[in-house]
Amino acid sequence: MPTYDLIVIGTGPGGYVCAIRAAQLGLKTAVVEKRKTHGGTCLNIGCIPSKALLYASEKFEEAEHDLAALGVIVDKPQLDLQIMMKHKDDTVAANVNGVGFLLKKHKVDAFFGLGTIKAPGEVEVKAADGSTQTLTATNIVIATGSDVAPLPGVEIDEKSIVSSTGALSLDEPPENLLVVGAGVIGLELGSVWSRLGSKVVVVEFLDRILPGMDAEVARQFQRILEKQGFKFLLGHKVEKIDKTPEGLRARIAPVAGGEALTLQADVALVAIGRRPYTDGLGLEALGVAMERGRVVIDEKFATNVPGLYAIGDVVRGPMLAHKAEDEGIAVAELLGGQHGYVNYEAIPGVVYTMPEIATVGATEEELKAKGIAYKVGKFPFTANGRARAMRHMDGFVKILADATTDRVLGVHIIGAGAGEMIAEACVLIEFGGSAEDLARTSHAHPTLSEAVREAAMAVDKMQIHL
Ligand code: FAD
Ligand code: NAI
Asked: Which GO CC terms are listed, alphabetically (predicted)?
C-alpha cells in the first residue's frame, strides 16, 4: 500500500499547485484525479478554453468593425469555427500536458480515478476500468472544485440547453442565444457568441449585472454591452424552457410578480453559478462538517477531521483559479512547517470581456455598508493618450482610499487591459500602500496604466490630465 506525507484529491489549480509546493518542501506527495487530464475545471473547461475563444472572437470582431478606422482595410472576415475551436483545443492540450510535466518534474505520483476517503489518512482510488487501490498518507487535501449549478425545471443536454462546458464547443454560432444569469460566465461566453454573430438576450434575476462588483462599473459595462448588441432582461427569471420543433421556448417571469413572457432561442446557456463538488468523496461517512455544500475549514484550511484539509472552489470564498492556487500554496507551506497564509483582501477578480473589468479590494457599496469613510479618485480612459492611440477609450479607473489614512481599500477598472493593470493595485494593497504611494510612482508614458496613477492622484485632486 503506497504511503505518502500528502495526498491531494483533484488536480485543478488548487490541487496541482498544492502538490508541487508540497514536493518542493520535501513532502512525499501523490495526486488523485478522476478526469483523464490534469488541470481541473480551469484548464479543461473553464479559464483557459474560454480565454482562447474570447481572444479569437475579439480578433474576429476587430477585423469586422475596428480595423477600418485605423486605415487597415480588410475584406469582411469569414468565420472558420473549426479552426477557432482547434486553437482552443490546442491551447487546452498544451496547458493540461504542461501540468502533467510539472507534476512529474517535481516527483509527484499521479493516480487517475475517483478518490474516496475511506478513513482519515486513507484514500481509495477507483480507476475507469473499475479496479481499485488504496493509498495512505499523513495528511489529505481535498481540492475537488465545483460543478455547474442546475436551474430547477431546466435540463442541460449540452447541445441546445448548455452549461459553460457546452457553450465552449457549439458547432455554429446560434442565431439567438438566451443566457440565463448576468454573471461572469454569462457575459464572457455571451460575448464570444455575440462577436461571432449571435443575438444575445441575458435574463438576470437581480436588477443589475455582475452582482458583487462595483455598481458604477457594472452600470457602465451594461451600457457598453448594450451598444455591442446585448439585450438584458433584469429582474426576471427563467421558469422553464421547452424544446419545440422551431427551437427553444423559454418562459420568463418578472421576479417582482406580473405577467410572464415567452422568448424563442436556438441555444440557452445556463450560467447561474457553480456549486461545490464533493460527490463520491465519502465526506458524510467521515463526519466532515459542511455548510451549504461547502467543506467547512478553519483559517489553516483544516476540516474538523484531523489530517484532512480543503482548498479552492470546494471551500468558502470566491470561486477563482488564483484563489485556489494561493490556498494550495498556503496549505502546502503549513504542512511543510512554514507559515502559509492567504490575504483575501488582495485577491483580484477579472471579467475578460471587451472592455475588461478588473477589481480588487472593497467596493463603494461595501465601504458604505461598513461605515468606513473613504475618498474616491477617478480617471477616464478618454483622457489617456495611449487609449486614444488604440481607440480603446471606454471605461475608467476608480480608486477608493481611507479618508483618514489614505490607505487604498479598493481599485476598480473597466477598460481594455484592465486585467493586466489590476496587478499593481494588488501589490499596493498587499503592502498596505496609500493612494499617494501610487500617485508618486513613475508610470511609463504612454501606457494605459497611467490612468491608474492619475486615478490615485485624483484621490487628492492632484490629477494632471483632467
Ligand atoms: P477544479 O478546477 O474544479 O478542479 C477540481 C478537480 O478535482 C477536477 O479536475 C475534478 O475532476 C477533480 N475531482 C473532483 N472530485 C474528485 C474525486 N473524488 N477524485 C478525484 N478527482 C476529483 N477562474 C478564474 O480565476 N479566472 C477565469 O478566467 C475563470 N474562468 C472560468 C471560466 C469558466 C467557463 C468556468 C466554469 C470557470 C472559470 N473560472 C475562472 C473558475 C475556475 O475554473 C475555478 O475557480 C478553479 O478551477 C477552481 O480550482 P479548484 O482546484 O478548486 O477546482
Ligand atoms: P455568477 O455567480 O458569477 O453569476 C450568476 C448570475 O446568475 C448572478 O448574477 C445571479 O444573480 C444570476 N442568477 C441566479 N439564479 C438565476 C435565475 N434563476 N435566473 C436568472 N439569473 C439567475 O456565476 P457564473 O457566471 O455561473 O460563474 C460561476 C463561477 O465561475 C463564478 O463564481 C466565477 O467566479 C467563476 N468564473 C470566473 C471567471 C473569471 O474569473 N473571469 C470566468 C467564469 C467563471
From this structure: cytoplasm
